[in-house]
Amino acid sequence: MENKMIVPFGSQHITLLEPVRFIFETENEKIVNVDVDVGYVHRGIEKACQTKLNYKQVAYIIPRICGLCAMSHALAYITAVEKILEFDPPKKAKYLRVLVHELDRIHSHLFAMAHVAEAAGYENLVMHLFRDRELAMECLEILTGNRVQYDYGCIGGVNRDLTPEVEKILRKKLKKLEDRIHWFKDLYMNDYTLSLRWKGIGVISKEMAEKYNAAGPVARASGVRTDARAEFDALPYRDLGFEMIVYKDGDIYSRNLVRLDEIFVSLRIIWNILDGLPEGNYKEEVKGLPKGESVCRWEAPRGELFMHVRGDGKQILTRVRVKTPTFSNIPVLRELFVGANYADVPAIITSFDPCMSCTAR
Amino acid sequence: MLKMFIESLKNLFSEPATLPGIGTEAPKGYRGLIVFNKEKCIFCTKCELVCPVDAIKFIYPEDGSRNLEFNYNPFLCIYCGECVRACPKDGALIQTNIVPEPGTQEDNPNEKWFEIERRAQESKKKWQIALAKKRQEALKKAKKQPPSDKKGSKK
Amino acid sequence: MYKNFEVIESSLEKIKEDIKNFYDPSKYHFITINAIDLGNGKVNIKWFFAKYEVMDKPIAFSVDATYEDTIPSIVDIIPSAWLSEAELADLFGLNIEGAKKGLFLEPDSPPAPLRRS
Predict the structure, then answer these.
(1) Given pLDDT bands bounded at 50, 70 and 90, which one contains residue B141?
(2) Which residues of chain A have pLDDT under 70?
(3) Does the distance separating the beta carbons of A125 and B4 come in below 8 Å?
(4) What is the structure's pLDDT at A2?
(5) How far is A111 from chain C, CA to nearest CA, in Å?
(6) Chain C: residue nearest A326 by CA?
(7) How far apart are the first and last CA of chain B?
(8) What is the pLDDT of residues C32-47, one digit of tens each?
């Protein structure tokens, strides 16, 4: 008993990206018990959405929950409201939504991979990843008008059309990005510094992932076949060549490979959209007030995003609930730490790609 | 590892990926500052209604006329462009690609804006009373002179 | 009323047994627990589940309760539910068995902010 030592980790720590606090009880280097506190950035966005803003304004406040998956939040909310209003957006709008959503996924995944590389001490790779992430960000800036907060979707469709000159620039930049991703894939498969630091560390078995309901790349790296893009019929992913990436090992290395391979899938989807964008309106007028209850499951870059919206026929909604991906992954993260080495903690946390501003909202 | 080494060596002699800093321009479709054009505005106040963060406030004149004063807070604005889309008149509100500058202490953004918010709220109440009076007078006139056509402002 | 998910009505006494009979970790994915304030001290609680890999509607167990009731915890069936329960206990002030308070709110913040008075 006297060998045990309590080590607090967070809410501010040099390897932590977001304010979360873990209290580790350690025995020598091994962690034997964990306590977690996640609510450092509670901003009351749900409360604001239910009391102050009308349902159309909420679509512009919800993405402010998180910068990296802004598009996922906005589109999930918009889809949930459209389901209540029983409105089906035009086909072109759906395709454009997929386009921005997948570009968002690319830059978020590159960001996550860069942070994992940083936790492993591979600064050179960090710089390369961040430089090439810029290509995806530039694509989004030209397409939507902003680098972080896209405000692209709206109830009824999307806010902007894809003009031919924008499409030309997108094609050029994506071609360059694709080449770079191929180079990264080669590097990730062959560079032995990465495998030394990441293989066999922080292993989540399939049973564990299922027991603690892990979501997103974390679950898929452990062999759980779950992806909201294949489980919820909001966007036409089936027509666009979507493929679920599943790895079996469940360690940090395979979580990275899942992200890397998902970028390839996203790029393929984007090429398909650019080649076969349907004609028609990109926005339609929606009338009526939301009355009823609906849910939306959405595959954000970090995992499954869940929206539960209830309206009672008024301008202001009765309930807007956002369940974010990291919220699902906190329980499995806590279990994973028990028995791990304290030195592996930063790498494990960053490999989960946590987003605390989403979790606490 | 060798690959990374070669790539890093190449980078030493290639063009830097970062921008020079001065003179970088926002692309054409960038969602920047909102610009108001008084000549074209019809003062429907739709932009004030749709703004999610209340960054647009109209101050109403005391005489009950429709000559409102437009106030816009670029430090509060989230640049979603919803006001521009809601505007029924082309060219009254435009979203430019000018990158907004951060607020400094000299701008005194908070106190200035709180004052405008307070004035907007008060002036609206006064304006509504003035408008009601105007309408009553117009009604009286209309009763006295039944053949004349409709007078008074409509809302 | 329920546009795109299936709802199984239950009661406070039965809910734990219902979920125990229903839940299969290899088949279903537990999403979250959510509460809706219906006004007048009443609250509706829903437990959401979805199937793995199949395009199907999510399933929700629905229970109507009041703020005075003690809500059974499902942590022994689904170990990852503790976080959702802690959130409801904080934001709605619900009495959930064994839920830790103070995880989402700071000590000086107003209690149960999502309740409608």
Answers:
(1) confident
(2) 1-2
(3) yes
(4) 63
(5) 26
(6) C83
(7) 73
(8) 888 888 888 888 888 8
Domains in chain C with CATH codes: 6-96 (3.30.460.80)
B78: closest CA of chain A, how far (Å): 9
Partners of C55 on chain A (C-beta within 8 Å) are 230-233
CATH number at residue A204: 1.10.645.10
Chain A residues touching residue B86 (CB < 8 angstroms): none
Compute the distance between CA of residue C99 and CA of residue C110 in angstroms, rounded to an integer: 18
Counting the structural domains of chain A, the total is: 1
Question: Does some domain include residue A33?
Answer: no
Nearest to A131 among B17, B50, B82 (CB): B17
Domains of chain B by start residue, with CATH: 24-144 (3.30.70.20)
Backbone torsions φ then ψ of A217, nearest 5 degrees: -55, -30
Q: By the 8 A CB rule, do A351 and A200 touch?
A: no
Interface pTM (ipTM) of the complex? Answer: 0.86
Q: Which of B8, B29, B78 sits opposite A142 (nearest CB)?
A: B29
Q: Tell whether A57 is covered by a domain.
A: yes
Q: How far is CA A151 from the centre of its chain?
A: 17
Q: Is residue A185 part of a domain?
A: yes
Q: Is residue C6 classed as helix, strand or coil in its secondary structure?
A: strand
Contacts of B51 in chain A (CB under 8 A): 57
Summarised one tens digit per residue, pLDDT across range B60-112 is 877 767 777 888 888 888 888 888 888 888 888 888 888 878 878 887 888 88
Chain Cα centroid distance, residue B78: 11
Residue-range definition of the domain harbouring residue A105: 42-329
pTM for this prediction: 0.87
